[in-house]
Amino acid sequence: MANKKQDYEGDKALAEVLFDSIGDGAITTDEFGKITRINPTAQSILGYSEDEALGQWFPKLCTAYDDSGGAIPLIDRPVTRAFVTGNIISEKIHYKTKAGNLIPVSMTISPIMVDDQPVGCIEIFRDISREYEIDKMKSDFISLASHQLRTPLSAIKTYSHMLSDGFMGQLNPRQNKSLKTIIAATNRMNETISTLLNITRIESGSVVVAKKPIAINQVIEEVIADHQLTVTDKNLSIKFSPVKDNIKIISDSVVLKEIIGNLVSNAIKYTPNGGQISVKLSTKDKTLIVAVSDTGLGIPESYKDNVFTKFFRGENVIRQETSGTGLGLYLVKGLVNELGGDVWFESTEGKGSTFYLSLPLLPQAIRTNKSVN
């Protein structure tokens, strides 16, 4: 019996040493959310001593805030969701320190389960202030560079089109071919600059969304018209399947055109000559679903988790299409979040992809329009 007790005490002492030695902040709570352990790193990050933290209600001691500085409601806190769902939650949020400063942290909360019931939780978190500063510097640089590039690019585009339209005399076929290359390059650069500026707006929280009733069929038709020249050049077919009635949704038409335009542009870019693209609208429950399909390169299974991340481009795509920033779908995801919608995809390598966008319908549209399959 004595040996068992010594072994238990030895294991307990080792566990305590290991907990205190964790390089990241670590906090444990009981089933009521009261702090039972806090390691030295967590004390250093938050500014509370062990005596000040132990026994305190975790959500009160560690108040949480979003990127814009707004307090996160208790029901939406990661610790609450971990308790309610029994799932491990990983997120980036801000904690307020004892000194009143907001610091960004990357955290993971794991519920401690006994017989499928939460009896506490453990949170591991680290201060990512340096990463935030670097990201901000990158965003500021991109924003500044993009604005500075816009002015000379506008001049290049204007004079190129004047030359193409014959305002400065007729060009021979060789000159016309070279000019088309210049115009195509300026268009690509302009698209890249617009993407970079939109991303900096999303990441800085300065995207302005002006929601109002818009006719979705018209928005899709305008997007397709904008891309018709490229579709023709690649000998692609593009089919639009609208909803039967021109229903309306509450959204921002400019942002929505940017989202759908990116999805259609990607479909065109990664579909070989002679391929097919379709844009289909349908309704389900209280949402409108936009499906953009292609017969293009498809996405390998190993890459699917990275599709909406910044600067990601699959190797199969790079081999076929060297141009591209890997920012289009990252931008799409950010803009969709701003509209309160969702985006996902299905894809088979070598056969093509379908990207889905869901947005809430107007109440009257829900009552008077059935799903179109």
What does this protein look like?
This protein has 373 residues and is α+β, with helices and mostly antiparallel strands. It folds into three domains: 2-127, 2-Layer Sandwich (Beta-Lactamase), CATH 3.30.450.20; 132-204, Helix Hairpins, CATH 1.10.287; 212-368, Histidine kinase-like ATPase, C-terminal domain (Heat Shock Protein 90, 2-Layer Sandwich). It is 45% helix and 24% strand. Strands 2-1-6-5-4-3 form a six-stranded antiparallel sheet, sandwiched between helices. The chain has a five-stranded mixed sheet with strand order 8-10-11-13-12, with helices on one face. The longest helix has 36 residues, at 129-164.
List keywords for this structure.
373 residues, alpha+beta, Beta-Lactamase, Helix Hairpins, Heat Shock Protein 90, six-stranded antiparallel β-sheet, five-stranded mixed β-sheet, disordered C terminus
